[in-house]
Design brief:
Helix content: 25-40%
Low-confidence stretches: none
Number of domains: 1
CATH class: Alpha Beta
CATH topology: ECO RV Endonuclease, Chain A
Order of helices and strands: HHEEEEEEEEH
Number of helices: 3
Strand content: 25-35%
């Protein structure tokens, strides 16, 4: 069984037992990027990016909506102040409750619209803008 299938099965099992906050979604996203998008994984502990796709540094963010009303227009991918400017491209992996999985990106980060948390400096990239960028709008 592949890493991605193992991680998806773990995610499904966790969800069956309640709403647990866990990093399994992040592991799924990175495994997905490796297996489906050809990402070469960065060494453990690398700051600000998860690997390379076609020679470009990429940050992988995973989103697993917890409620029916979680729509792309209400979600964002965040990049912290200390990690800004380290990755060139953004990939967002979308995981649904039954283990369905898809992605948005890779898209050059510097072309994306964002909002900024004034207090923390975190940049928030709305997923509906990322989707439009992927569709060439």
């Amino acid at each position: 069984m592949s890493k991605l299938k193992d991680f998806l099965e773990a995610y499904r099992l966790l969800g069956k037992h309640g709403d647990y906050d866990t990093s399994i979604a992040g592991a799924i996203g990175e495994a997905y990027a490796e297996e489906k998008l050809g990402m070469e994984k960065a060494p453990a502990g690398e700051k600000g990016y998860d690997g390379w796709i076609t020679g470009r540094k990429v940050q992988v963010k995973s989103k697993a909506p917890r409620k029916v009303y979680d729509r792309l227009s209400q979600q964002y991918a965040a990049i912290s102040r200390q990690n800004r400017g380290l990755a060139e491209d953004l990939v967002v992996v979308l995981i649904d409750k039954v283990g369905g999985i898809t992605h948005l990106g890779p898209v050059p980060i510097d072309t994306l619209q964002f909002g900024e948390n004034k207090k923390t400096g975190e940049r928030r990239y709305p997923l509906h803008h990322l989707k439009k960028a992927c569709e060439g709008e």
